[in-house]
Write a structure and sequence with these properties.
The complex is a heterodimer of chains A (236) and B (81). Chain A has 236 residues and is of the alpha/beta class. Chain A has helices at residues 14-24, 68-77, 87-95, 151-159, 218-228, and strands at residues 2-7, 28-33, 44-47, 81-85, 101-103, 111-119, 135-142, 146-148, 163-168, 187-191, 197-200. A nine-stranded mixed sheet of chain A has the order 2-1-3-4-11-10-9-6-7, with helices on both faces. With 81 residues, chain B is an alpha+beta fold. Classes of the chains: A alpha/beta (236), B alpha+beta (81). The interface between A and B is medium-sized, with 20 and 11 residues.
Chain lengths: 236, 81
């Protein structure tokens, strides 16, 4: 399996993702510089976390126009799997590949802590090794994770099971306290209508192996790999 | 020509920065300060010679990059320099 990881200026979770793909999952990770014009022979693409372009203007707003993004659009159009983590999620929102936008965290501060999230849809290529309602613990590290969209789009997300992860407490209850950033409807991650693009604010790549004392993030990568079995890589 | 661009959060969207600033002003005794909205101000020097093309360019810049119209409104003034 070949997984491409896009490296923007300011990405800082690219190598963590590459480590999980290659060392933990045993597949091939390919770092792809944002100025590359094409994505060649990749089974899936990850937009990693970080601070692309220093978060200038708005998070993800400048990275969204990097040359590689044209290839990412085509990759998505042709059904390729794309996972955006944290800043990668913000870039997908700015690119319009996922609906909505990020506001500053409700309490303004940058939050770096473990959060519990509930799997709302276990029938996606990113969550198929989880169970619906399962609670996993993943860390967040962001200042702009307060998801917002208009009421019509929110209804559509809810109706189409596009809300894939919600913040919750350890027992799976979503409360005001369990929502770390003020995110609308406790949203921690969403997918597109077609189902091949997923964005989430928590970092599964930071907790995907035993030495890190939390392996809950492993299930996301495991799901992706198993959903890709038997499929051909894409070149765009 | 120069464009002055103002980008603000749409009405009804919670503005945590504005709220924090308002609380601070209240603490300082500025009790008449209400509903503070924080935005961005940009100045852009333009090489356009016609005001019409300058306006059209600025509008396009705002829609494409400078503002995120999911959450933000923009307005601008074109100033002849």
């Amino acid at each position: 399996m070949n997984i491409g990881i896009i490296v923007f200026p300011g990405s800082n979770c690219d190598r963590d993702c590459a480590h999980v793909v290659s060392e933990v999952m045993g597949h091939s990770a390919h770092l792809i510089w944002h100025q590359e014009p094409a994505i060649q022979d990749m089974d899936a693409v990850i937009l990693p976390g970080g601070f692309s372009y220093g978060d200038y203007l708005r998070t993800g707003s400048i990275a969204r126009f990097s040359p590689i993004m044209e290839a990412v659009f085509e990759f998505v159009n042709r059904g390729g799997l794309v996972l955006g983590i944290c800043n990668g999620f913000q870039i997908l929102l700015e690119a319009g590949l996922l609906p909505g936008a990020m506001l500053r965290n409700k309490a303004l501060s940058f939050i770096c802590e473990d959060t519990y999230i509930r799997i709302e849809n276990a029938e996606t290529p990113f969550t198929n090794s989880c169970e619906a309602g399962q609670v996993i613990k993943l860390p967040i590290a962001h200042a702009e994770g307060n998801y917002y969209t208009d009421p019509v789009t929110l209804s559509a997300l809810q109706a189409n099971a596009q809300v894939v992860f919600r913040y919750c407490d350890q027992d799976g209850n979503a409360t005001t306290i369990s929502n770390p950033n003020g995110s609308l409807d406790d949203i921690a991650g969403i997918r597109n209508a077609k189902g091949n693009v997923l964005g989430l604010m928590p970092h599964p790549e930071r907790c995907a192996e035993a030495i890190l004392s939390n392996q809950d993030g492993h299930s996301i990568f495991k799901s992706m790999v198993s959903s890709l079995m038997g499929k051909s890589p894409l070149s765009v | 020509m120069k464009a002055k661009i103002y980008i603000t959060l749409k009405d009804g969207i919670h503005d945590p920065q504005g709220r924090a600033i308002q609380q601070s002003l209240q603490t300082l005794g500025f009790t008449t300060a209400q509903d503070i909205r924080v935005g961005k101000f940009l100045e852009v020097e333009l090489q356009d010679t016609e005001k019409e093309s300058a306006e059209s360019n600025i509008k396009s810049m705002c829609q494409k990059l400078l503002a995120n119209t999911v959450i933000e409104d923009f307005r601008y003034e074109i100033v002849e320099t």
